[in-house]
Design a protein that fits this description.
single chain, four-stranded antiparallel β-sheet, alpha+beta
Length: 155
């Protein structure tokens, strides 16, 4: 149950932050938070990560829906408690962006970082949790494979 609450809280945090940005910053505008480094920008992304697949709404709705179903299946069938937190992060993030895409046809991205002349692609809270969950999932799976009694056997 805790893992479902985690996913729901991620969705709520994501939607509230996107709503706040939409209410307080004009589309295409930015607020400088840390000079020459961090900005809050209102950017409407009709694509996926790094704005790839622009205007592919049907594809970008169907594929994440399938991923959400698969993750949901593993989420509810795994007995391993360590796997549930990363899956909850990925699930909450994926659902947060899918909600936007289904309602508005785009995702609101707003976290913008500059590293000298390089501008990192703008992202949002949902994206952050998908990445955090994916990294944690990799760590947990690597840890589980090292812990497995068959991991050291050579066939």
């Amino acid at each position: 149950m805790l893992w479902i609450i985690t996913s729901v809280l991620i969705i709520i945090l994501d939607q509230i932050t996107k709503w706040q940005v939409a209410q307080n910053i004009q589309p295409g505008s930015a607020i400088e938070v840390i000079p020459s480094f961090f900005y809050i920008t209102n950017y409407s992304n009709t694509g996926a990560a790094w704005s790839i697949l622009q205007n592919q709404r049907i594809f970008l709705t169907i594929v994440p829906s399938i991923v959400i179903i698969v993750i949901g299946y593993f989420f509810f069938t795994t007995k391993d408690r360590l796997l549930r937190f990363p899956l909850a992060c990925i699930l909450g993030g994926a659902m947060g962006n899918l909600i936007d895409r289904m309602i508005k046809g785009s995702v609101t991205d707003f976290l913008e970082f500059h590293f000298g002349t390089y501008v990192f692609p703008i992202f949002n809270v949902a994206d952050s949790f998908v990445v955090i969950g994916s990294i944690l999932l990799c760590i947990v799976m690597l840890w589980m494979s090292k812990k497995s009694p068959t991991a050291d056997k050579i066939e």
